[in-house]
Amino acid sequence: MDDGLPLLKGTLDLLVLKTLSWGPLHGYAIATWLEERSEGTLGVDDSALYQALQRMEGRGLLAAEWGTTDNNRRARYYKLTAAGRRRLREESATWMRYTQSVSSILSLASRTV
Amino acid sequence: MSPQRDRDRDAFRAGVRRLFKLPLFTRAAARADADAELDAFLAERIDRLVLSGLTPADARAEALRRLGSPEGDARLVLRRSAQRRQRHQWLRQAAADLREDLRIAVRRFAHSPAFTATALLTLAFGIGANTAIFSAVHGLLLAPLAFPNGNRIVMPMQENDRYRGDSRFERRNMAGALIEAWQQRTHTVEDIAAASEDMFSLDADGTIDTLTSAVVTVNFLPMLGVEPLVGRGFSPGDVVRHGPPNVAVISEALWRQSYAGRSDIVGRTVTLDGRPLAIIGVAPAGLNIPLSHKTPPDMWVPGALTDAVDGGTGSLDISPSVFALLRPGVSVDVASRELESIAAGVPHAAGLGGRLRVMRAQDFVNAGETRALEVLFAAVGALLLTACATVANLLLARAWTRQREFAIRGALGAGRRRLARQVLTESMSLALAGGLLGIGVAGLTLRVIVALRPPGLDRLADVHIEPAVLLWTLVVSVLTGLSFGCAPAFFAGLHPVGDVLRREMRGGSAGVISRRVRSTLVVLQIAASLALLVASGLLVRSFAALQRMPLGFEPRGLLYADVLIAGTREQRGTIRDEIIRHLQSLRDVTGVSIGVMPGKGWLGGGVEAEIDPEGHTADVPALGTIMMSPGYLRVARIPLLAGRLPDSTSFSSLGPAGWSSEVLVNRALARRLWPAGRAIGAHLREKPFPGRPPAPWSTVVGVTSDTRIPGESGDVAAYQVYTIDRLVSEVPFVVRTTMSGDDAAPIVKRAITAVDPHIFARPILSGDTYLRDGLAPTRFAMSLLTAFGVVALALAAIGLSGVIAYSVSQRTREIGIRLALGADPSRVVRHVVSGGLGLVALGIALGAAAALAATRALSSMLYGVGAADPPTFVAIALLVGAIALVASYVPARRALRIDPAETLRAD
């Protein structure tokens, strides 16, 4: 990870879940979607993304089936399972609380400096 | 792992899977999947990069850079998860299929509740009864004695020709010299110990209890491999020569019951027969070494071996059991031969001179019970056979209809594998459900068996369901279900669909196969149930005969109490007379005398008799001696056949040992010694111990009738000599009451202890109990066999009526046409039934043959009825025939309700 922000642990999973919340996507589409939304600041390399996908599929958060891409290639399309959807809701709430508390601490710290 | 080896393994696995028709998922397939996914990803990225202006080569390099890890690693990760995924998917699919199949199966079962209930109950009963019986047999016959060296312990005994095979009368006393010779010279035996049983009264904190105890040599417990739970075992210093023991090891059961398992038990002093005794240890549970009693001892006290065998009055009584520990790997036969050859060089001292026999202690425990269990074993096997046959029959009956269903489903495109799986699921679920119910039935059956158990099989109470046995019966039932459940699927796959559907219009060949199989099964069932019922019928008749058997005395209302009286001869005499007075004063008591319950007396050494005026003598090796007072014959109701009672003062001329100068003999002994009938006036005496002066001669003054032991189908209990009581320290009393003996026992016990609370009376035996216990083994076998027989017959009837119903449904058209052409309906029914009757006749013939073979094994349990008793055979055959007739008539009547017009229109 030489470019962009270092990724907080667990964030990638959450982002992938978020990405898939609009509908099924194949691996490359997920990668580009993340890159575009984060304007390149996320800096996830592809194998890390794939490990996350496999991990989440193993835990039943995602399901996948073979389909065809726009360029007529066979690729696996990942989609959220019910469990994945639930996880996304819980994680986002936690994440929000976490970021709020971190930023409020940071703003306090910047005032006392 | 080389790629070549990977490929080979994949190929092999694929082959195996194809062989067993398992879904083809290989590592190779998973790998291809994973690679395809990564390739697609990279290709998409490269496309995009090329679009943004990179050369394909640069684009590829960039795409790989963005992977962030070497391409090989990324591929590996993907491949691994792809393989995992595939496995999961396969399992999920299988589970879903199973659920689906189960749903269909349950729905089908719900559609035919009668079929399902019958099949389930049949299986449950077959499996349950089997499991219970096999568990019992396993626990009793196959499990070694429950202590470490249990299966290496043997018991050398001397056989007594007259009582061969009867453990009650097989003398087991060994000459001390013989045991010593064995100990010095044996190479097959590690150790030899002796034990004999005794009864003591234990006075623990004021309550007096009667204990079974064993006097044992010091090496006895270590030889069995037993370590005390608490405290210590015996050491040589514990043996008291010529005196009562002063230390004891108690059983775990006694420790728990009387001392609540308190750890401070060691060192406690208890009062045993009025003498103090220190408890030095507790033996672990499961020390079920058999002595003469069937119950394991409550207490062990140390004794010396030499006292045991010289006929002296040491701490071991005159007839100890001898136990030897085989060296590991030595067989009983080898040890037996060696001990015999050593014995051949030792002059027997107090032996009977009978053949030496070495038995496994295990076999000794089960002596006499093995036969009953074997019979049960065979019976339950027959029951399992009928149960399986019934289920097979039911499933085959469905096969026909299923065949059509499968043919249609096949025509509609269901794969053969799918259909086979469906059938498999149905049969398996039926078999397993039956098996589960069977576990419940097994528990109940075992409880019933334990409740009914004969007294000799007390150890049955410890029997529990053996998991291995349960598994075995489950497997049997599953196999039954499978083999017959798959038949329709097999047939369905065998014939093209059109064939099956066409054949159904005409009634055809697969039907013939299944009908033959079913007919065979019905014949088997009828045969098995007939054999079972014949066996139970014979036992019922034996039981009735045993109940009527002339015993030569009257046990009902007779009580027998053994009382130990201490003190000098005069003191003992006073106490004895006091007890008699007390007992006579009881209401409902009509007679009291000295003497034992017939058959419970002491069986001792031989007799020497003058058999003719020339003074020739003859020996009888062993006989029973009954000490009595003259009233004994009247109280026990033993008829005096000839002569007179002995003079009760005839002892005065003798010392305290030996027989009175006038004695009675029983008829068996009189006939053996004086076949010409000159018993009265003849002389006889006890065979003296070697090295002792001979006893004085006694004169026979009367002959009594023979007595028999209740429930023993053998002949007379023993040769008997009745001698006048000589006031030994152990006095047997018999009491005749007008109450039932069970009610009178506590009253008698109280009357005895009222004389002196410290008097020790052994447990009182009532003649009613004696009679009941004697008949119990026969009653036990009879009840179980009858129950099995009835169940088997019911199953056979179900099977038969199924076959007839099926043949009626097969011949609907034929019957319809016959009726339409004016055939007499009753003749049509007869015609249908006659097919069934052929099967019945065949089954009865086979069953009779099987019963003849089987009842021979029963013959030792039979009394007053031959193993091939014609009335029993005929009666049972008629019963089975009648039931079979009803079973075939009921479905046959359906033929009468056939409307000819309907059947003709149906085609």
Task: Give the mean pLDDT of chain B.
Answer: 75
Beta-sheet strand percentage of chain B?
5-15%
Widest β-sheet, arrangement of strands of chain A? 1-3-2
Secondary-structure element series of chain A: HEHHEEH
Instruction: Give the overall form of chain B.
Output: extended
* Largest β sheet strand count, sense and barrel closure of chain B: 9 strands, mixed
Count of discrete alpha- or pi-helical segments spanning 4 or more residues of chain A:
4
Q: How much helix, percentage-wise, in residues of chain A?
A: 55-70%
Structural class of chain A: alpha+beta
Shape of chain A: globular
Give a quick set of tags describing it.
heterodimer; A: 113 residues; alpha+beta; three-stranded antiparallel sheet; 4 helices; B: 907 residues; extended
Structure overview:
The complex is a heterodimer of chains A (113) and B (907). Chain A has 113 residues and is α+β, with helices and mostly antiparallel strands. Chain A has helices at 11-20, 27-37, 46-58, 82-112; strands at residues 25-26, 62-68, 74-80. Chain A has a three-stranded antiparallel β-sheet with strand order 1-3-2. Chain B has 907 residues and is α+β, with helices and mostly antiparallel strands. In chain B, strands 13, 14, 15, 16, 17, 18, 19, 20 and 21 form a nine-stranded mixed β-sheet that branches. In chain B, strands 2-3-8-5-7-6 form a six-stranded mixed beta barrel. In chain B, strands 11, 12, 22, 23 and 24 form a five-stranded antiparallel β-sheet that branches. The longest helix of chain B is centred in the last third of the chain and has 44 residues, at 767-810. Chains A and B meet through α2, α3 and β3 of A and α2 and α4 of B.
